[in-house]
Batch of 2 targets.
Target 1
Amino acid sequence: MQTIDKVRNGCIAFVLFMMGLMWMGEAVFNNRVALALALYATVVGVVALVAITFFSHLVRRRNMSVEEAVNRDVKNVLVFGGLAMVKYDDSRNIVWISDMLEAMNLKITGLKLLDWQPTLASLFDSDDIQVIDIKGKRFEAYNAEESKLIYLKDVTQYMSLQQDFEDQQICMAYISIDNYEESIENADEATAAQIQSVCRQVIVDWAYADGMILRSYRTGGYVAFFNERIYRKQLENKFAILDTFKKKSADIDAMMTLSIGIGRGTSVLKELEELASSALQLTYSRGGDQVAIKSGKDKVRYFGGKSDAYEKSSKVRTRVIANSLAGLIKRSSNVYVMGHRMSDLDSLGSSIGIARIVQAYDKRVAIVIDDNSLEEKTRAVVQTMKNDNRYDGMLTGPNEAVERVNKDTLLIVVDNHKPSLAISSVLLDMVKNKVIIDHHRRGEEFISTPVLTYLEPSASSAVELITELIDYQNVDVRINERDATIMYAGMLVDTHFFQQRVGVRTFQTAAKLKDFNASVTDAYELLQDSFERTQEIGELERTAELYTHHIVIATGRDDETHEQVVLAKTSNNLLEVSDVMAAFTIGRTAKNKVNISARSSHTINVQMIMESLGGGGHFSMAACALEGVTTEQACQRLKEAIDRYFEERSQEE
Ligand SMILES: [Mn+2]
């Protein structure tokens, strides 16, 4: 029994005892006074009893359970607290809904629970909480399976507060107009003015329409501040500004595009600026016409860049680069030219081209070659060069090169820009003055502090870039017929015999090399496969299977190793099959390394797919290397990467 009841009973017993005593007094004395006293005591007693009962009731009320307390008020309590309930039967039909839902005019009794809210299905598998939409309101739903009740909590306000908070986070963007200065330089006064005003107008209109803060910080460069809500709007329309700008620019016959680097996901302003700035660097060297978004520690996201980098119409940049390069060569004591590891003919051919330019300025030059890191065809060519007096002293090993480095040594890196691909990383570290000339789209890894960078992803090959540079030298660069043939072969390799990434300038370069007496027959011969290799490629091709979206995947055996070029050739061959949009070849290239070579025909961005596996390359030509996996596992990871690529695309569309 509760304490309160004991106290109450005690009081009642005491009052009754007092009343009894008075009446006994009256019985004993039997006089008026005694009677009056007894009557008085009775009246007081009854009042006291009523009061005791009442107060005890009051006190007891505070100790009641919710159940007893609210009783019929339960309805109001639930509505006020934003709680609702849905009861269902064994076959998950809704049999009852609480008043709050009734009040919302919800007619769902009799319906199947999951027909009404399909997402609730997950609540039957786990103890989860799910947020659902009911007539524009947001509810957290919990399933009490025992009692066959769905508890619903109205979290509309909380969610909208959270949304408001997220919406207000600040983003920063650097916006840069690609090819802006070149376009203006090449135009007459009136057109230049038109270009300036159109560019400005398009960017300003876009920024202001969406409520951004925009300031120009340099010629053709803007900085913008906006919040997450505005950012999301841009995501929704997939940064339509890229196309709008490109179109407006085409309307006035200019070839300009936008590169936008966005930083977000941090409340530290300094970090925001760093993210935006490095995002811009990325877009810029990936060929422009795209948006890169860096959010805190997340992976970089790209928009646009879905069309292959188009050729730049102006050769102004080439001339400027050619002049700067000449200046650097003239100021140097000696020059090294270095291609990439597992050097192919583009790497070697472009190195030879540069070496001839340097020789034209009477400077000592050597091409760094690592005999242990040559692709098969290139190895054969290097061998012939060693027996050819036209190349006396022109080739050097990485170790010898290191010995002759001084503070005025110039290192020209061709056909690559990643430290991890350098033939000699020691040389890379030792030489202060570095030039990078490459046609690969920029990856995140990049050789630090070059004095000159010439990245041109629209070029077919490094040979193409360097042959153009030869054109703009003010001295006579002597390219002999063997040089030209090797360079021509380099172009053949990188364009897959003029089938991929070929532009007007590619053919101009080919013509130029022919002028230098390149032998096309010899070039093709340099690239001919041995019977064994042809068989090897054939074997790989036979493993090809069709995946989705017209993609084929060839997977080599785990107990066989292949050269990377074999994988590349297999992909190339597979791509030639009609209806194949992309081809991937997976093969072991070393004991602990599996490589994937990817090729596509301009509809699927294999660079993005390879990047998601830690590799890189071009839109239509890319590769990656995986360690510690079997070829089967590599195949699985590739398929996942392909699925992700299409998922992301479909989200963007
Ligand atoms: Mn190349």
Target 2
Amino acid sequence: MQARTAAAATQLQNCTLCPHRCGAARATAAGRCRVGAQAYIASEMLHMGEEEPLRPAHAIFLSGCTATCSFCTAARFAFRPTYGAVVSPAQLAARILQRQEQGARAVAFIGGDPVPHIPFIVAVRAELGGKLRVPLVLNSNLWLTPEALALLDGVVDLYLPDLKFGPPGAHGDCGAALGGMPDYWQVVTGAIATLHAQGKPLLVRHLLMPGHLRCCTQPVLTWLAQLPGVRVSLLTQYLAPAHARGALAQPLAADDIRTAGELAATLGLTLVR
Ligand code: SF4
């Protein structure tokens, strides 16, 4: 783990963790995500909002994100990489062990997006050593590079990717247009397929978005059905933030929720709630 910590730390000099591939020296916070060399924690808590197998999770919300989703409900810290408190890997490891004693069934790194914080997460895992008895969960867009994915191998116990957007088509490219993530479909499905082929524990989330049943939900569920045994969490709690525009400013239609549920059943997907 020490070698992995050192390898991850080199990303702080020349960052290629996400497909923006800025090559930024992170201490200057000059990359596209503006995340510096230190991780800021917006909040941490025992959280009852995760899927049943993970409840309660010790949720750790890291500030900053590689995406710029126009409907982000966590903009307060996702778009402010210095929101919250700086803690050292040793300090966070101590808090994780406290939360474990309080009954946490998992420790979940969330954002924003955790990808810019991979060197920090690897360092925290190294601090924890054999004392961590619950799975370390990465809840991420998984819009990341192969080298970032490799750094997580053996560090993450359960991958919890958000597969939000469908592939580009006649309607446009939702991942790039709404999320600011070029090549979204190719990158994220590529990472999920790699993890699945490696037999890594995976639970894929998909949030239904108003007006995006055909362009996003249907192709996402259809693609996931090709991965034998993959567990899927279909989220229907979309809440439009005040800054959302167009269809995304509307509530989710009950018909869309029903149609998505029927499609998941028809496809034989294993749903986790
Ligand atoms: S994680 Fe941030 S600094 Fe690193 S390549 Fe992506 S946008 Fe650039």
